[in-house]
Amino acid sequence: QVQLVESGGGLVQAGNSLRLSCAASGGTFSSYSMAWFRQAPGKEREFVASISRYGGTVYYANSVKGRFTISRDNAENTVSLQMNNLKPEDSAVYYCATPTALSWLSREGWSSKRMQYWGQGTQVTVSS
After folding, report:
1. What letter does residue 26 receive in the DSSP assignment?
2. CA distance linking residue 4 with residue 78, whole number of Å
């Protein structure tokens, strides 16, 4: 059983930056590809970014490409999301998630339905 705990959310003004972190426990971290999703009020949970087990491949949603960077530290069992040039439309609860161990999904395959483990989420609010 993998446990995921997010941190780093908060309230920022548009144009500023935030860095989210997700600490994992309960499994061999390097066995899991990792992802960030987000959910705004009244909207479906959507894919933000993913990273392969050793960080060699990353995918981003078009809406965040060029502004967000996903990274991981397998020695520290953490995955991070650096968010720059934040916009009000980035406001949401951000979730760390992972599919089953040793799996990797295609660019189009990163759906919330295919994630096995989720964190509790961290709120990001961007004011205009």
Report:
1. S
2. 9
The dihedral through the CA atoms of 39, 121, 93, 33 has a sign that is: negative
The strand pair at 92-98 and 117-118 is best described as antiparallel
Smallest Cα–Cα separation from 63: which of 47, 52, 50? 47
- Count of CB atoms situated within 10 Å of the CB of 76: 12
pLDDT of residue 1: 86
Residue 69 pLDDT > 90: yes
Positive or negative torsion for Cα 81, 32, 35, 44: negative
Residues found in the chain: 128
How many angstroms from the chain centroid is the CA of residue 128?
A: 23
Instruction: Give yes or no for residue 78 having a pLDDT over 90.
Output: yes
Give residues with Cβ within 8 angstroms of 16, minimum separation 6. 86, 126
Tell me, what's the pLDDT at 30? Answer: 95
Residue 10 near residue 126, CB atoms below 8 Å? no
For residues 68 and 23, give the distance between their C-alpha atoms in angstroms, rounded to a whole number: 19
